[in-house]
């Protein structure tokens, strides 16, 4: 049992880094714009399908990732324009229902275009690193590195650029930010674009690691919401640590108890955290929830 | 007096009318109408939660499933009478619903939706895992049909339709009693502003818990009836993104916060795909588009549109006959 532990930890870290990558985009959009974007999972799915289709058409994997990410950013901006902006002054219930509708529409459109059976893209970085206690695919190391790089990139934009200053100002107080001459429309566009970029990039890269199918976004986005609860909303550190923690716990439950109970374990954590520490494990600010 | 006529006599008259029409319909129409009635039961009871308290639950597909499997187990394995099993299944779903609600009501807004979505996904998973009880992927076969109603001499399709209409009638009247009660008023206060309601000393915990329990009870009863009519249930009928999502669509398209709107929504959305004969892969897409369209352009649903049209017409008649208007419109109402 115990000699499996290093391998389980490594598997948990790789799974957790994918959750963290998806949670990063979700936490940004939710933390700044207060939009519960259920459709973030579908942006992830469309990133994966676009990459799959481009690779199938003979495009190099890395080029396909870039094109797919650009497509998803464009889609994300359209999504915001069509679905969320008209509801800007409605209740959060309307926003939630509209997001749910958008997510179903995108899923079903993908089903009609590509069918519902799972597809796979060959990994661009083959090979496995074998160590004494565990082995890890080079591609998985790349995914972990990418997640950390994405986190670093978002941190730099938020904390070391004028745009980031504006985004943080809007997140803190919309009215005051507007009085300081910050253009809400620009901040909104930029935030949504960065969120879509993170989702699309995640999907594009992970299409080489997971099967690609129209409903592939539901589970990760749900896990990402759990990560948000664990980490605290709008908290970048929380998104990374919460994602990794969730991945490790899931792999442990699946490995040592039962693989059928993997998701049950996740929601037990969610329930426990909501009951015991509603501001999140790493959160300091108490938000409306 | 007039409001009592509207809330008790009209539905009863409609029920009598529908029952009288049943012998003249063919089996296919009866089957579609039966499904519409079951969906209407789900929609009306779900609206008591979504439309009156403003809490978006995505766990109700699972509660519907709990009722369905409980109905299957009680009537086929334990040999219970259908009429005893129906309310008991409602109660079982209600108990499960109360446990879900105890957890979920610690949150609100988006977190409530996410938590119930998670619970719905786990519930769906559990229908696969608990193979001994549910039959797992294969499904639960051999659930007995509802027993024939006495004196009516109907074949099974007609019998199913009348039982579903009866359940819808009971659901509608019970929902009417709930929303007119002090708890119903408290629910509306929760929907408008939880913090303010709390500050005013309104007992929000009791009101929202009753609304959740109410919707869970009728979801369970509808599940048991659905199981008996289909003779077979499988986990895919109770997934979050199918059943749970459809309930939201029916209520929003019909009109949140009215009791008759969701019935219209259920009838329209059940009969349209059947009459248009569109492929099932497009129906979920159409549901999504409808939901988004109504949310953006007519958030109060069909009921809201009808009310607006009705008021516009009244204003027009009132303005053309200004002098005698008050008495005429009073009488016409």
From TrEMBL, chain A:
Pfam family, any one: BPD_transp_2
Matching CDD domains: TM_PBP1_LivH_like
Gene Ontology MF terms: transmembrane transporter activity
The entry's keywords: Amino-acid transport, Cell membrane, Membrane, Transmembrane, Transmembrane helix, Transport
Membrane topology: Multi-pass membrane protein
BP terms from Gene Ontology: amino acid transport
Transmembrane segments: 12-39, 59-83, 95-116, 136-158, 189-212, 224-257, 264-287
Location in the cell: Cell membrane
Cellular component GO terms, alphabetical: plasma membrane
PANTHER family for the chain: AMINO ACID ABC TRANSPORTER PERMEASE PROTEIN (PTHR11795:SF445), BRANCHED-CHAIN AMINO ACID TRANSPORT SYSTEM PERMEASE PROTEIN LIVH (PTHR11795)
Assigned protein family: Belongs to the binding-protein-dependent transport system permease family. LivHM subfamily.
Protein name: Branched-chain amino acid ABC transporter permease
Taxonomic source organism: Pigmentiphaga aceris
TrEMBL record, chain B:
PANTHER family noted in UniProt: HIGH-AFFINITY BRANCHED-CHAIN AMINO ACID TRANSPORT PROTEIN BRAE, HIGH-AFFINITY BRANCHED-CHAIN AMINO ACID TRANSPORT SYSTEM PERMEASE
CDD domains (alphabetical): TM_PBP1_LivM_like
Compartments reported by the entry: Cell membrane
Its membrane topology: Multi-pass membrane protein
Organism the protein comes from: Pigmentiphaga aceris
Stored Pfam families: BPD_transp_2
Primary location class: membrane
Transmembrane residue ranges: 31-50, 55-74, 80-103, 110-130, 161-179, 212-233, 245-272, 284-306
Molecular function GO terms recorded: branched-chain amino acid transmembrane transporter activity
Protein name: Branched-chain amino acid ABC transporter permease
UniProt keyword annotations, A-Z: Cell membrane, Membrane, Transmembrane, Transmembrane helix
GO CC, one annotated term: plasma membrane
């Amino acid at each position: 049992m115990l000699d499996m532990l290093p391998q389980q930890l490594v598997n948990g870290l790789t799974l957790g880094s994918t959750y963290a990558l998806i949670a990063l985009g979700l936490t940004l959009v939710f933390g700044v714009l207060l939009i519960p974007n259920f459709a973030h999972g579908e942006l992830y799915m469309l990133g994966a399908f676009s990459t799959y289709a481009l690779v199938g058409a003979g495009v190099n994997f890395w080029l396909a990732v870039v094109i797919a990410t650009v497509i998803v950013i464009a889609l994300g901006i359209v999504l915001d324009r069509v679905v969320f902006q008209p509801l800007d002054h409605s209740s959060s219930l309307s926003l939630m229902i509209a997001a749910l509708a958008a997510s179903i529409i995108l899923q079903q459109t993908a089903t009609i275009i590509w069918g519902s059976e799972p597809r796979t893209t060959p990994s661009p970085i083959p090979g496995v690193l074998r160590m004494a206690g565990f082995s890890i695919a080079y591609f998985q190391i790349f995914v972990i590195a990418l997640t950390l790089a994405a986190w670093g990139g978002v941190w730099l934009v938020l904390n070391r650029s004028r745009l980031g200053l504006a985004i943080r100002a809007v997140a803190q107080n919309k009215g005051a930010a507007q009085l300081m001459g910050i253009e809400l429309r620009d901040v909104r566009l930029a935030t949504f674009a960065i969120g879509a970029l993170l989702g699309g990039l995640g999907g594009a890269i992970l299409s080489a690691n997971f099967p690609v199918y129209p409903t592939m976004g539901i589970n990760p986005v749900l896990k990402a919401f759990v990560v948000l609860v664990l980490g605290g909303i709008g908290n970048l550190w929380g998104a990374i640590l919460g994602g990794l923690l969730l991945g490790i716990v899931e792999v442990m439950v699946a490995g040592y108890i039962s693989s059928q109970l993997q998701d049950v374990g996740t929601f037990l954590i969610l329930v426990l955290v909501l009951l015991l520490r509603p501001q999140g494990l790493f959160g300091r600010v108490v938000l409306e929830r | 007096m007039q409001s009592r006529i509207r809330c008790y006599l009209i539905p009863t008259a409609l029920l009598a009318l529908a029952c009288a029409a049943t012998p003249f319909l063919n089996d296919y129409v009866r089957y579609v109408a039966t499904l519409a009635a079951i969906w209407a039961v789900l929609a009306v009871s779900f609206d008591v939660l979504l439309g009156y308290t403003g809490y978006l639950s995505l766990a109700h597909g699972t509660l519907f499933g709990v009722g369905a499997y409980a109905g299957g187990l009680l009537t086929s394995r334990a040999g219970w009478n259908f009429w005893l099993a129906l309310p008991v299944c409602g109660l079982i779903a209600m108990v499960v619903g109360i446990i879900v609600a105890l957890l979920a009501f610690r949150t609100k807004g988006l977190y409530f939706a996410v938590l119930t979505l998670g619970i719905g996904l786990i519930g769906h998973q559990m229908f696969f895992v608990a193979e001994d009880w549910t039959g797992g992927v294969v499904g639960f076969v051999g659930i007995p049909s509802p027993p024939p109603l006495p004196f009516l001499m109907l074949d099974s399709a007609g019998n199913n339709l009348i039982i579903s209409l009866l359940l819808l009638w009971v659901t509608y009247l019970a929902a009417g009693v709930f929303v007119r009660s002090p708890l119903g008023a408290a629910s509306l206060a929760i929907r408008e502003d939880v913090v303010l309601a709390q500050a005013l000393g309104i007992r929000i915990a009791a009101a929202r818990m009753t609304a959740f329990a109410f919707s869970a009870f009728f979801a369970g009863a509808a599940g048991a009836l659905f199981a008996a009519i289909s003779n077979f249930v499988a986990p895919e009928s109770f997934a979050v993104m199918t059943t749970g999502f459809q309930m939201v669509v029916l209520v929003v398209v019909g009109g949140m916060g009215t009791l008759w709107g969701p019935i219209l929504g259920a009838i329209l959305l059940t009969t349209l795909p059947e009459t248009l004969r569109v492929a099932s892969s497009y129906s979920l897409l159409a549901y999504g588009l409808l939901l988004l369209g109504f949310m953006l352009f007519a958030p109060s649903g069909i009921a809201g549109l009808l009310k607006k049209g009705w008021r516009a017409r009244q204003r027009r008649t009132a303005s053309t006959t200004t002098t005698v208007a008050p008495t005429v419109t009073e009488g016409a109402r």
